[in-house]
Design brief:
mainly alpha
């Protein structure tokens, strides 16, 4: 996975970055819940 730094000029890229971050947060949360 490549992580691109986005600028304010590219809202599409920024939205993509937000989705990636949200997915990573969900994944981490699931791992933490499994570990209990």
């Amino acid at each position: 996975m490549k992580l691109r730094l986005s600028s304010a000029c590219h809202p599409q890229t920024d939205g993509q970055t937000k989705r990636i971050i949200q997915s990573l947060e969900d994944l981490l949360r699931a791992c933490v819940l499994e570990q209990g």
